[in-house]
Amino acid sequence: MVKGIAALVAACSIWGLSPLFYWMLSDVPAIEVLCYRTLWSLIFFAGLLAVRGRLGRVGHALRQPRTLLVLIAASVMISLNWFGFIWTVSKGNGLEASLGYYIFPLLSVVLGAVFFGERLVRAQAVAVALAAVAVIVLTWGLGVPPWIALSLALTFGAYGVLKKGLSVGPVTSVTAEVLIIAPLAIGWLVWRGTTWPGQGADWDTHALLMLSGPLTGLPLVLFSYATQHVRLSTVGIVQYLNPSLQFACAVLFFGNAITQWHAIAFPLIWAALVIYSYTAYRQDRARRRAVSSAATLSTTVT
User: Fold this and answer.
1) Are 40 and 209 in contact (CB under 8 A)?
2) Is the pTM of this model over 0.85?
3) Exposed e or buried b for every residue in 157-185, given b needs 16+ CB within 10 A?
4) 3-class SS at 211?
5) How far apart are CA 273 and CA 277, in angstroms?
6) What pLDDT sits at residue 276?
7) Where are the domains of the chain?
8) Which runs of consecutive H residues, i.e. helices, occur in the chain?
């Protein structure tokens, strides 16, 4: 339990502080950073699976037509999400990035209802409504919808919908996804004539680009471990550490200005997340009680 929570906090902290890392690569075009992140992530994940003796699972997943189609769609969504995040951070707009990942869990509730028929309880509906009001406030006050935040939330939400139907493990599926995108990444780098290490390139920059692989893979491994050892309600609450750290980076490091409209919208979203988290906690607690009662009854009958 303690190790699981430690892994969860570490994963969310890495994600939350990642804007500081990608800011150091702001001189590199965002699409190029995405290409290198894809390739180095592939090397990291493939190496991890090879050490575990599970590399063959990637080929097995790609040979299943339906799974392959889902993986292709998922690879597009995660690539768009990664690109949007990298581009946003490179422009110094960490506030929009944090807003996107605050909105994401509330959007997931809506997507679950639309695609999987999951019933929204009243508290969840209230939370979603508060988030919608926050977006409307920003749109009205700033004169334009928060497109960046919404695109980050939508692409990550769509990615989650696609992954929900996969029977392969998270590391295997992500390895397959970056493998699908890898030829495009290599093609782009070659076509654009990127400067490779050893050809007058900045070795420090390429060292950072290389580090983007472990920085992508390590928190996913930690998060996967945590979900197996920590209650889902705890996961749901602690994962807000990610956008909260992004918010802190945006204000303290990037110097993003908090307008009066942000001062209204963010508390609305935070209130929505409190309602959502409390509801998720109660639902998780009720499920565990039901399972415990069923187990006790089965033992008694036996």
Assistant:
1) yes
2) yes
3) bbbbbbbeebebeebbbbbbbbbbbbeeb
4) helix
5) 6
6) 86
7) 2-301
8) 2-23, 30-52, 56-62, 65-90, 94-116, 122-142, 147-164, 170-191, 203-229, 232-238, 241-248, 260-301
Mean pLDDT by 10 residues, the chain (302 residues): 84 95 92 94 95 93 93 95 95 92 89 85 89 92 90 92 84 94 93 61 84 94 82 76 94 92 94 88 77 59 54
Q: What is the pLDDT of residue 293?
A: 63
pLDDT of residue 197: 55
Q: Are 10 and 238 in contact, with CB atoms under 8 Å apart?
A: no
Residue whose C-alpha is closest to residue 209's, from 189, 229, 223? 189
At 182, the amino acid letter reads A
* Cα angle: 73, vertex 79, 226; to 5 degrees: 90
Distance CA 129, CA 2 (A): 35
- Sequence-distant (≥ 6) Cβ neighbours of residue 64 within 8 angstroms: none
- Token match 């509730």: residue? 109
Contact predicate 125/178, CB 8 Å: no
d(CA 242, CA 249): 11
pLDDT at 295 (0 to 100): 56
For position 112, what pLDDT does the model report?
86
> C-alpha angle with apex 260: 257 to 262, nearest 5 degrees?
65
Tokens of 257: 């200005």
**Rounded CA separation 83/265 (Å):** 25
Q: How many Å apart are CA 146 and CA 150, to the nearest integer?
A: 6
Q: What is the separation of C-alpha 63 from the centre of its chain, rounded to a whole number of angstroms?
A: 26
List helix spans (H) across 192-259. Answer: 203-229, 232-238, 241-248
Provide φ and ψ at 119, rounded to 5°.
Answer: -80, 135
Distance CA 119, CA 67 (A): 27
